[in-house]
Amino acid sequence: xxxxxxxxxxxxxxxxxxxxxxxxxxxxxxxxxxxxxxxxxxxxxxxxxxxxxxxxxxxxxxxxxxxxxxxxxxxxxxxxxxxxxxxxxxxxxxxxxxxxxxxxxxxxxxxxxxxxxxxxxxxxxxxxxxxxxxxxxxxxxxxxxxxxxxxxxxxxxxxxxxxxxxxxxxxxxxxxxxxxxxxxxxxxxxxxxxxxxxxxxxxxxxxxxxxxxxxxxxxxxxxxxxxxxxxxxxxxxxxxxxxxxxxxxxxxxxxxxxxxxxxxxxxxxxxxxxxxxxxxxx
Length: 282
Ligand SMILES: [Zn+2]
Prior knowledge:
Blueprint: H1 2-14, H2 18-38, H3 41-50, E1 63-68, H4 74-85, E2 88-91, H5 92-102, H6 105-115, H7 122-135, E3 141-144, H8 150-162, E4 169-175, H9 178-186, E5 188-191, E6 199-201, E7 220-221, H10 228-251, E8 255-260, H11 266-276
Parallel strand pairs: 1-3, 1-4, 2-3, 4-8
Antiparallel strand pairs: 5-6, 5-7
Bound molecules: zinc ion.
Zinc ion binds near residues 191 and 213.
């Protein structure tokens, strides 16, 4: 045994410990590789939650709109992209709520419209979202729930063209079977505490205690529009909208990518999104 190690130690001496360093680096790379392979989807999610650093700082400078049925998980995916990849996410709902809370001129108008039970016009939605977008500069962006109509899509493309950023625009279409959407949404529970509204999934993210919110202890319940019959109707409405939007994007020569999210966990969909956009994990 000693004869075996002596030449090795001499070699180490000669190289002035450089080789130890190299050996250490290659071993830790191997270990990382092995860990990634050994992680199952559920562990991947836990791993994602534990990781504090972003996957890669240099993400492509793209502008993405997610197109996907209710329950396709586009909101969750957008959140993950914001946390892990440093994307800015603009959700129409959040922007509207913010404007109303801040009592801006537009926010007050919108609050009035909503009180009267009317719909906020395409022009108003576009103005709010694009104002927010412009504040952001040239940072990589994901639009969640925008554009919702052809008029909104037209305004967005015109705006990006003016800024010279049209070639950075991607439509990422999340594909999922209707039956899976019904299954997912009927397994979705929302915290009844108005200040919390945390969302749980009995399939992907069950609460620790049944029907009790992990965050605030509020009671969890199913939204009326997540009942199977309501979901079917929402999907019918969505399919009409999606067709109009997709036809418009195709006619306009937009870059369209398809992400199959059916039968996939959230981390799996996330990794697939990364590879689709050419973003590599470190
Ligand atoms: Zn809660």
